[in-house]
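sry for the spam today, last one i promise. C-alpha cells for design, 174 residues
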C-alpha cells in the first residue's frame, strides 16, 4: 500500500497545531506563575527582523489550513489576524484543526499531480504540482513557524521541551 498525500499531510498538520496549543497552555501558566503580562510573550521575537510570537502562530495556522484546502481543491476559511491573547490564539488553532479535520482525504490524495497556484506575498504567485507543494512548501513552512513559536517561548523561559513540540505522536512502544 502506498503512502498517500492525506496520510502525509493531515496528521502532521493536526499534531503540529495541537502541540502548539499545548505549548501556549504552558506559556499562559508560565506568565501567571511569574506574574508576567502574557502580552510580553505574545510580542516577543528572537531577532529584530523576525515576526513576534502572535504572528508566528497566525502564519502557522494560515499555512496549514490554506495548504490543506488547496490540496483538497476547496476554499479555505479566512481569519482576521486580530488575536491579542493566548486564548484567542488557541481558539484560532482549534478552528484551523477543525477545518483540516473536515477535509475529504480522497480530494487531497488526488492532488499529487495537479498543478496548484498559490500566493507568494501580496503580488506574486507560485506554481507547483500538489506533491511538491506539500513536501517542499506547506510542510517545511508550517514546521518553520511552529519551530519559531516554540523557540520564542523557550527563549523567554517557558519550560518546554522536545516532547511539547512533537505533541501527541501516534506510536507504539515495545
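last one done:
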Amino acid at each position: 500500500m502506498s503512502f498517500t498525500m492525506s496520510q502525509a499531510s493531515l496528521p502532521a498538520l493536526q499534531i503540529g497545531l495541537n502541540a502548539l496549543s499545548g505549548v501556549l497552555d504552558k506559556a499562559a501558566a508560565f506568565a501567571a506563575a511569574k506574574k508576567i503580562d502574557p502580552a510580553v510573550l505574545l510580542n516577543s521575537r528572537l531577532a529584530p527582523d523576525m515576526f513576534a510570537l502572535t504572528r508566528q502562530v497566525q502564519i502557522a495556522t494560515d499555512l496549514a489550513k490554506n495548504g490543506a484546502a488547496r490540496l483538497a481543491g476547496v476554499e479555505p476559511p479566512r481569519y482576521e489576524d486580530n488575536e491579542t491573547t493566548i486564548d484567542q490564539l488557541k481558539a484560532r488553532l482549534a478552528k484551523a484543526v477543525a477545518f483540516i479535520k473536515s477535509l475529504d482525504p480522497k480530494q487531497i490524495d488526488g492532488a499529487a499531480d495537479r498543478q496548484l497556484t498559490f500566493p507568494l506575498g501580496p503580488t506574486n504567485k507560485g506554481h507547483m504540482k500538489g506533491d511538491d507543494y506539500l513536501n517542499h512548501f506547506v510542510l517545511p513552512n508550517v514546521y518553520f513557524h511552529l519551530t519559531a513559536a516554540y523557540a520564542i517561548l523557550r527563549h523567554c523561559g517557558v519550560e518546554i521541551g522536545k516532547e511539547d513540540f512533537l505533541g501527541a505522536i501516534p506510536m507504539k512502544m515495545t
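The chain has seven helices and two strands. ok im logging off now
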